[in-house]
């Protein structure tokens, strides 16, 4: 029988692509429940699903921030959830001093507690049946801090710690956990962030910090999306491989161009190498960032390159 896969956040981006790709699995291994907070946005998904709609793909309402919505959604699913994909998420960038605690809590409610809420709901069934797979769309920012992404990175670090802990217990129940860690992905995600930033004034932030944010970080971030950003289809292929694996990995990065940066943290447990290298990239050699991470990938570390 096909495995029932429940995915959160399918109105756009990675969630939408994943739902469509799994629903079109040539071997028909999956019955996809593609969920979204606002069903008014279902048209793009339905159009992309094509003939799979109503066959291997159904659309359902689910707000990961609402207990009632989660209960309602799960009560409508025939059978049990075999694979849960925690994909719904949001970003937050900017100088800390100018961000409200309410905005930060909203990020945690969505990215962290949203996933926890869904896991709590499906876990009893998975434990009873002694099978299941929980996939979490984390980020390379779940592995390493990134300037001006303090709260978003913290929410992804929280997911990493939570699910790594849970993975130990769940192995005993034959339930697998997989954290997928993309670098930048070209979806609506970045546009939503930039729209947020263009309206924000970041009250209470000193001019020097604002200058670093607007004149160094934002252009560098935009260029990074252009130079190393993956398209959602590539990320989805990695997720599909994780879902179809018989021994799913705990962690899977999707962008090989990011490995040099993530490796900095593993080769130096003091953490200084990572912090100092990324500091230098942004504040000392911003031209290197303009080229994306390619220069890091090909081994010409910033210390050896003198920008003109
Ligand atoms: P996206 O903005 O297209 O998709 C995020 C989806 O989550 C949207 O459909 C949004 O409506 C939904 N969502 C937000 N709050 C929700 C809620 N309360 N209930 C239900 N759905 C909600 O962006 P994306 O790039 O496809 O992001 C998907 C996941 O990938 C996120 O968890 C994100 O953190 C992660 N990610 C994205 C990138 C990137 O650069 N785009 C990189 C690494 C990780």
Could you give the topology of this structure?
Blueprint: E1 3-7, H1 13-23, E2 30-36, H2 43-49, E3 57-61, H3 67-76, E4 83-86, H4 101-129, E5 132-137, H5 150-171, E6 175-181, H6 188-199, H7 207-228, H8 232-244, E7 251-253, H9 259-267, H10 272-284, H11 286-290, H12 294-297
Parallel strand pairs: 1-2, 1-4, 2-3, 4-5, 5-6, 6-7
Helix pairs in contact: 1-2, 1-8, 3-4, 4-5, 9-10
Overall pLDDT level: 92
Biggest β-sheet: strands ordered side by side in the sheet: 3-2-1-4-5-6-7
* Total beta strand runs: 7
- Amount of beta strand: 5-15%
Poorly predicted tracts of residues:
292-308
What profile does the largest beta sheet have?
Answer: 7 strands, parallel
User: Structural class of the secondary elements?
Assistant: alpha/beta
Mass-distribution shape: globular
Ligands, deduplicated: nicotinamide-adenine-dinucleotide
The number of helical elements comes to 12
Q: Report how far the terminal alpha carbons are from each other.
A: 62 Å
Order of helices and strands: EHEHEHEHEHEHHHEHHHH
Please bin the fraction of helical residues: 40-55%
- The Cα radius of gyration reads 20 Å
